[in-house]
Design brief:
Blueprint: H1 3-30, H2 39-63, H3 71-93, H4 97-120
Helix pairs in contact: 1-2, 1-4, 3-4
Length: about 120
């Protein structure tokens, strides 16, 4: 298999795992589950997200589709930053369950936007 495609499929896999993990942690947050505070729950997402970021950087370098040159890549990075902020408020920094739930919903919309941008690579941006 071509190296680029292998890395791309790994990146997609890490993105799906990240989404599923966030959904599970969001469910645990909404149900006040003790699982949300266990060590593996805190460590494993960081490992996966590091691999996700690493594969993203490799893909950018291999494809020469750099941020601020290709608008869709810049948009994905901007949406990623929004997702990170919303995710931290959803899972730990939100002071009330209502704030955490709202941030969780907005984070999910942001993830959907990231996936849509990745799939469509809009050129008008």
């Amino acid at each position: 298999m071509h190296t680029y495609l292998l890395i791309k499929y790994c990146h997609i896999g890490f993105a799906v795992i990240s989404l599923l993990g966030f959904l599970l942690r969001g469910y645990w947050m909404l149900t006040d589950s003790a699982w949300l505070h266990k060590k593996p729950t805190k460590v494993l997402p960081h490992i996966n997200d590091t691999l996700l970021l690493l594969t993203a950087v490799v893909l950018v370098v291999m494809s020469h589709q750099y941020p601020f040159v290709f608008g869709w890549v810049t948009l994905k990075i901007g949406l990623l930053l929004v997702y990170i902020v919303l995710g931290t408020f959803a899972l730990k920094r939100g002071k009330t369950r209502q704030i955490r739930a709202g941030c969780f919903g907005l984070a999910l919309l942001t993830i959907a936007s990231i996936f849509i941008v990745a799939l469509t690579k809009p050129v008008f941006i």
